[in-house]
Amino acid sequence: MPDLEIQIGELTLKNPVTVASGTFGYGQEYEAFYDPSLLGAIFLKSVTLEERPGNPPPRLVETPAGLINSIGLQNVGLDRFLDEVVPLLEGIDTVLIANIAGNTVDEYVQLAEALSDCPGLAALEVNVSCPNVKEGGIAFGTSADMIREVTQEVVAASALPIIVKLTPNVADIVSMAHAAEEAGATAVSLVNTFLALAIDIETRRPILGNATGGLSGPAIKPIALRMVWQVARSTNIPIIGMGGIMTGTDAIEFLMAGATAIAVGTANFVNPLAPVEIVKELEMFLEAHHHTSVREIINVVEG
Amino acid sequence: MHKLLAKLIDAQALASGVFVHTYHAPEISRSAEPGQFVNIRVSSSVAPLLRRPFSVLSSDGREQFRILFEVKGQGTEILSRKQPGAEVDCVGPLGQPFQIKAGKLNLVIAGGMGVAPLFFLMQQLRTKPYPTLLLYGVRTKACLYLVDELVASGVQLQIFTDDGSAGQQGMVTDFVEEYMQPGCAIYACGPMEMIKVLTHKVHSAGLECQVSLENQLGCGVGACLGCVVKVHDGYARVCCDGPVFDSNALEF
Ligand SMILES: Cc1cc2nc3c(=O)[nH]c(=O)nc-3n(C[C@H](O)[C@H](O)[C@H](O)COP(=O)(O)OP(=O)(O)OC[C@H]3O[C@@H](n4cnc5c(N)ncnc54)[C@H](O)[C@@H]3O)c2cc1C
Ligand SMILES: Cc1cc2nc3c(=O)[nH]c(=O)nc-3n(C[C@H](O)[C@H](O)[C@H](O)COP(=O)(O)O)c2cc1C
Ligand code: FES
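That is the input. Now the predicted structure with flavin-adenine dinucleotide docked in place:
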């Protein structure tokens, strides 16, 4: 049996297959299909300081090999997250990573502080795709300076390892990853969804209640993979790779491109067993190629 | 809830583009309740990517269940081409079922394909002591499905067609007041416009009803928060808080 264990900073994952924030709830919904403890880690749905009702429906549009969503970070807010959600996580025997989202640096800091001593959480993922209301609403993740600032502050506010989740809606993903690395992040997740639009040709309006949304699924895989590869070549920060991963082959591509772990998102909706099937396919690939450890295929792409 | 390969054992075309499929899947057939649905992956490729939800039309409670569907786009088209013997990737049963209420009369209101979950409901209402009246509204006579089975099962049936080609001419919602009576239990499924008008009329009469809604789904299991509809205290998920809702919880 090949060794699937990987290390991301001080975090040890039993295997490199995780599930992406917002696609797996808080881990309860998929328990009917398999034991979530089989996963390398679970990235929990984004939590914000205050409760958020989310965007008006429609919130989903299917596109060729893709899905546009505009959930709008619907969540119960920090207080109820601590009281109601955290107790549900007890008994899930894997690395649990909370995902925090804010509209000001201070909101990220408050979330990071409050979640730092939360039993059961192993790390924090910082969703920087949100608009910075103090900077005219441009997303934190589209400016290297803002990424640096928010990362520094969150790293200072929390004892937990900090993973910065980058948005792909930028001209130069490498400089964003650099900023997170310099500011002390333990790892970067890439990528979040691509800003997208669908139009109802009968009503001549955007289909989504929020007009635009984020594209995920196989449609984005080649672009996400390219970004992981670029960041891996020019930084030393560990990468959690995601974007359209459906199969073991997809996952192996991301690992070879330089991701230390991968996350399964939209594929959960299509095949609820996708993450555990990917673990098996990865194991089979390693065996077939006589590898003793998954670490032997990470960041091996030449040229 | 199960994920399994259901074997298609019978496929019938009821009309052009309308099909009834019978599947062998004991795990689903044994536990499915009226109002619940199955989520089918029609293609192992990514075209289309997402599963397609269909109400359970009926179940024998042991081995087989049926669905009734209309070809709308790529997903239903692919499903309609499957032949008996095909193994179909199916998740279910999903969602909240109808709650069977004791009423002097079961008033069941179907618009178009909305008859599917109600058919299963009426199967179960048959075992209750009170009578069931189905108000079945469709565009035109050719869009009436399963009428023989319905009549054979003993439900009283009142048909409405937009063009008068069968039953009463007009929309169900134009006549529904005539059939409502104090203490009746009302169940409905159909296009959103029909549900809106109906709910308004039912509430005006001081009654309430259970309605089954449709929406674009993502995960189908409550994880993505993509399928929500507006309810009085926020948003509710069609896939797992519904698809059956108490009409007085909904905000239109
Ligand atoms: C809980 C639940 C239960 C259901 N039960 C049943 C059932 O029992 N029977 C049944 O037949 N159906 C049922 N449905 C509906 C069924 O799931 C859909 O009809 C089906 O998913 C359609 O899939 P498709 O791929 O064939 O169509 P799609 O390709 O998804 O398209 C659907 C329609 O949208 C239109 N459309 C797409 N893009 C645009 C655009 N840009 N502008 C304007 N229009 C556009 C298309 O023309 C098409 O008519 C149910 C749905 C839910 C949520
Ligand atoms: C319905 C949905 C909800 C999402 N919610 C969040 C979220 O709350 N926070 C976040 O950081 N990313 C969120 N994402 C992005 C995913 O975590 C992931 O980065 C993205 O979908 C790309 O991976 P995929 O193509 O495998 O889905 C969401 C994605 C989807 C499809
Ligand atoms: S479809 Fe995902 S929550 Fe309903």
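Chain B is about 20% helix and 35% strand.
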